[in-house]
Specification:
heterotrimer; A mainly alpha (287); B alpha/beta (432); C mainly alpha (275); A: 287 residues; mainly alpha; MetI-like fold; B: 432 residues; alpha/beta; D-Maltodextrin-Binding Protein, domain 2; 2 domains; 11-stranded mixed β-sheet; two-stranded antiparallel sheet; disordered N terminus
Chain lengths: 287, 432, 275
């Protein structure tokens, strides 16, 4: 009987998920084995042609490499900062309301608008960053216009966005924690660091698992700022996988090839997500 | 669908007569024409378009026009083709002139030729500037009608010219003069860093467009009319790119790396550079925001003058009834009449698309007060079709990547253009 | 968190400084937006304290689109989406957290797929579905694909799993049915998480753009972001004054709501009445 109950509970969500996620996802998989239909030429079965084309596409490989660096550079920093921010604003720090608002701004402001603001920060000569650096006698950089620094700039924007976002979930988790735990630990004479390491941190693990899975997925999903700030340039230096999919799908209108690339990305993410989930879920201690 | 008039007919009579009248009214129910349009320049564009629709409907009670704002140009083609693939495209849409091959390949649009029957219509088609029609025709058919079109011009800061000892009322006429002027206009601070650049040509996002001006000036077009062949690796093209690269690397009068399109006008207002290349669509913006005396000129000549055209055309979607197509054409003719073309140009900064628009009193008055507005028109005889081929955006991306590689110094101009051409040949193989 | 472990002395000072440094960095874009929106455009790159204030940018922005109607649509949209999400997500998360049934792992993986599938990729198929359902150009069509939120199911599953089993069992001993247990034990304990989720969901749908633009055509169904977009994609370059004014205009309700609600984050555990 238990499972009938469970199924009934999930039914409404399952129907919507099937209709608006799984059905289109399967359609995508299906289309990836055909050629793109164009006007007079209907789609033809193409087997793995699209995937073979992918293997030989230098822009694909470049965007994959870019994306891996992007993930490596943004995920750990965002999570660490998020946890730090949450610990700070969950206690009686001076100006707590202001700090909460500050950390929360990335979630409130629409990315397209914010990307335009960051564009100003990174602008050569009169941009905010250059002005600050100029005061210290260094400057003369074209941050977004150079192949060496463009991806780094995007990573800064991403960390800004992600840390503020994940902070909210850590904050919520900290608020659900019983204050009696701390009282008890203090009575037993545990140090502050010891308490964080042995009590707070483990209790945050379910949230960390959640945040981590989302951070990995977001590292492949956040591309709104690419559209505004660099459009993948200079010379593909900031081409990320999803932006490339977007280009292929809605600029080149090669839906079959976009489908194949989507499937590769999905498989990649799925693999990573399942692995980390299996690995971490076992380490997470739920009460 | 039932209209107000048919409803009124039913209310106003009875019996047998009702059926008769209602049937007649139904047959004459207004034709509904849905119409996507993008907004790419500042100003209350959506209000102007809504005003057009209202005025047009007043004059043509049989037609119901439904203008739908569809975001940027890129959003608009996304929306239009998404709707098309689901079987419900708009009747007409304003999209980039360079989207022509994409739309033809998708079999989404119909040519205007079948609708052009009278000699009056033919005269109307001939009234547009030839440069704008180049991107609207292929294979002997007309697929697009020019509406909001632009071209590239040079804006310069007259005060800086004066400071550098140059004639403030004369822009450089050719490439060599550009370098001379720019060298005088570039300033450095104590540490040798430039505080003011001579010239700036944006290279983010769509560098191909600005580069095409250089190529045309150097005597070559980047593609053939059929959209099946590009000429990225011709010596003249490589030479044009070499010139652009030299501006920053050899002469050091142009910022290094990629120059952002979006911030270039602001750089100009902030007096970070003396000459900028950008669209005529910026005219209204510069006029409003430049706190100094500025000039507008045709782009400097290489072997010849030149610039690509840009901007959007009207397209007619295939999935529409004959009545809808007729109604759409009626509106397009209405919206491109000399009077309205002139007003639209004044309101938005786009180039009025036909010669007789420039003879209208409002335009004459406008140009008299603001002569810079006529520069784009005077340059049109030298203008060429914007780069557009089959598989357009992909073939263009090959060039964009090559240009940025050369400008950032990762490839030599020759290497970059060879690679771009090889990629383009691969992409266009199946269209030959 | 507890006051027992509140930092003291020098450590406290250092931490406060660090928190403020980070806070100032994080609020910089918003601060810039405020500065630029209230000044004429020549001050968008120059920060002079004596610069005259102006509301012109807001007037221009407000007049560029029927924002009053757009705001109404957006409020309806986020309210509808959030209400549906809270119900659907709570039920599904409860099932995943506290029921053992065959295929649970696979089903959960299928839910997570939604996290990975990019909404943009689904646009063409979902447009077709909406057309078939006759929902095109409605507010419901904008919200429907987002109502079963994998993100929410995942988040609440983690939260519900952390609820002590003893509380669950105690409630059942008192004769509660499983839905009553959910309502009386799990939901109150998860209050801060619900609040966090609500803030995130509302912010996301308030700012979502591409799908609403594509699936709607008329003023009666379009959200504020469609009005906002008029300023951000221009041939003539970026005009920061007008973009920031329009951004502040559209996000002001979110900012105010956040300021009001952030106090709710304080010590919900105590108020839930479970000791």
């Amino acid at each position: 009987m238990q499972w009938v109950h469970a199924w009934l509970l999930m039914l409404p969500a399952a129907i919507l998920l099937a209709l608006f996620t799984h059905y289109p996802a399967i359609a995508t998989l299906w289309h990836s084995f055909f050629t793109t239909p164009k006007g007079g030429r209907p789609a033809q079965f193409a087997g793995f042609d699209n995937y073979q084309q992918l293997a030989q596409d230098p822009v694909f490989w470049q965007s994959l490499t870019n994306n891996l660096w992007y993930a490596l550079g943004t995920i750990p920093v965002s999570i660490a900062l998020a946890m730090l921010m949450a610990v700070w604003v969950s206690k009686n720090i001076a100006g707590r309301s202001f700090l909460r608002l500050a950390y929360f701004t990335p979630t409130i402001l629409p990315m397209i608008a914010v990307a335009n603001i960051w564009l100003f920060f990174f602008t050569p000569e009169y941009g905010l960053l250059e002005k600050l650096l100029g005061a210290f006698g260094s400057g003369g950089h074209n941050w977004l216009g150079s192949k060496n620094t463009a991806l780094g700039c995007l990573m800064v924007v991403t960390v800004w966005k992600e840390a503020g976002f994940f902070m909210i979930f850590y904050l919520a988790a900290l608020q659900s924690m019983s204050p009696h735990l701390a009282d008890a630990a203090a009575i037993e004479g545990a140090s502050r660091w010891y308490f964080f390491r042995r009590v707070t941190f483990p209790l945050l693990m379910p949230t960390t698992l959640f945040v981590f899975v989302n951070a990995v997925i977001n590292a492949f999903r956040l591309v709104d700022h690419v559209v505004v700030m660099t459009r993948g340039g200079p010379d593909n230096a900031t081409e990320l996988l999803l932006f490339y999919i977007y280009e292929i799908g809605f600029r080149f209108w090669d839906s079959a090839y976009a489908a194949a690339l989507t499937i590769v990305l999905l498989a990649l993410l799925g693999l990573v997500a399942v692995l980390q989930f299996l690995f971490l879920e076992r380490k997470v201690h739920y009460q | 669908m039932f209209s107000k008039s048919s409803a009124r007919a039913i209310n106003g009579s009875c019996g047998f007569l009702v059926a008769l009248v209602a049937a007649a009214a139904f047959a004459q129910a207004p034709v509904e024409v849905s119409f996507y349009y993008p907004v790419a320049v500042g100003g209350p564009i959506t209000k102007i378009i809504d005003g057009y629709a209202a005025d047009f409907e007043k004059e043509n009670p049989g037609i119901k026009l439904k203008p739908i704002y569809s975001g940027s140009y890129q959003d608009s083609i996304t929306k239009a083709l998404t709707a098309f693939k689901s079987g419900e495209p708009p009747v007409m849409s304003i999209l980039l002139s360079t989207d022509m091959f994409t739309l033809i390949d998708e079999d989404a649009i119909v040519p205007f030729d079948d609708l052009i029957r009278t000699s009056e219509d033919q005269a109307w088609l001939k009234s547009f500037y030839a440069a704008f029609m180049e991107n609207s025709r292929t294979g002997g058919k007309t697929w697009g009608i020019p509406f909001q079109r632009s071209t590239i011009v040079l804006y310069w800061n007259k005060e800086m010219f004066k400071d550098a000892g140059l004639d403030p009322n004369r822009a450089p006429a050719n490439w060599k003069e550009t370098v001379d002027y720019a060298q005088k206009l570039t300033k450095h601070d104590g540490s040798g860093r430039a505080t003011q650049w001579g010239v700036q040509i944006p290279s983010s996002g769509f560098p191909y467009w600005l580069f095409q001006a250089l190529a045309v000036e150097n005597g070559v077009q980047l593609m053939n009319d059929a959209g099946t062949q590009t000429y990225y690796d011709r010596p003249e093209v490589i030479e044009a790119l070499q010139y652009w690269v030299d501006l920053s690397r050899k002469y050091k009068v142009h910022p290094e790396g990629i120059v952002d399109w979006g911030t270039t006008p602001k750089d100009f207002f902030e007096k970070k550079m003396a000459m900028m290349w950008t669209t005529t669509g910026n005219l209204t913006n510069v006029k409003a925001n430049a706190k100094f005396d500025f000039g507008v000129a045709m782009l400097p000549a290489g072997k010849q003058r030149g610039s690509p055209t840009g901007g959007g055309n009207f397209y007619l979607f295939k999935k529409s009834t004959p009545a809808q197509r007729e109604a759409a054409l009626k509106f397009i003719k209405w919206a491109t009449s000399p009077q309205r073309a002139a007003q639209w140009g004044i309101d938005t900064g786009y180039v009025a698309v036909r010669a007789d628009a420039w003879d209208t009193p409002i335009m004459k008055q406008y140009v008299a007060g603001f002569p810079a507005a006529a520069v784009a028109r005077d340059q049109l005889p030298f203008a060429k079709a914007e780069l557009s081929t089959h598989d357009n955006q992909r073939v263009t991306k090959a060039l964009n990547d090559g240009l940025q590689a050369a400008l950032t110094g990762t490839k030599t101009p020759e290497q970059a253009m060879r690679d771009a051409q090889r990629e383009s040949e691969r992409l266009l193989r199946s269209y030959k | 968190m507890s006051h027992v472990y509140a930092s003291r002395g020098a450590v406290r000072g250092l931490e406060t400084m660090g928190a403020w440094l980070l806070g100032l960095l994080w609020i910089l874009p918003l601060a810039y937006a405020f500065w630029t929106a209230f000044h004429a455009s020549e001050y968008s790159t120059r920060f002079v304290l004596a610069a005259p204030l102006t509301l012109d940018n807001f007037v221009t922005a407000w007049n560029a689109a029927p924002f009053a109607r757009y705001f109404l649509n957006t409020v309806l949209l986020v309210a509808m989406v959030l209400a549906a999400q809270l119900v659907l997500v709570t039920l599904a998360a409860y099932a995943f957290a506290r029921y053992a049934f065959p295929g649970r792992g696979i089903l959960f993986a299928l839910v997570l797929v939604q996290l990975m599938v990019m909404p943009d990729v689904l646009i063409v198929e979902n447009y077709r579905t909406m057309t078939a359902l006759g929902l095109k150009d409605t507010i419901l069509a904008i919200g429907l694909p987002y109502m079963a939120s994998a993100f929410g199911i995942f988040l609440l599953r983690q939260t519900f799993k952390s609820v002590p089993r003893e509380l669950d069992e105690a409630a059942r001993m008192e004769g509660c049915t499983s839905l009553q247990v959910l309502w009386k034990v799990y939901v109150p304990l998860a209050r801060p998480v619900y609040l966090a989720y609500a803030l995130v969901s509302v912010s996301y749908h308030w700012n979502n753009f591409l799908w609403p633009l594509i699936i709607t055509n008329s003023v009666e169904s379009r959200p504020v972001t469609v009005g906002l977009q008029v300023f951000s994609a221009t041939d003539q370059g970026v005009d920061w004054s007008i973009i920031t004014a329009a951004t502040l205009l559209t996000t002001a309700p979110l900012l105010v709501a956040f300021l009001l609600f952030q106090r709710q984050f304080v010590a919900s555990f105590m108020r839930a009445g479970i000791k």
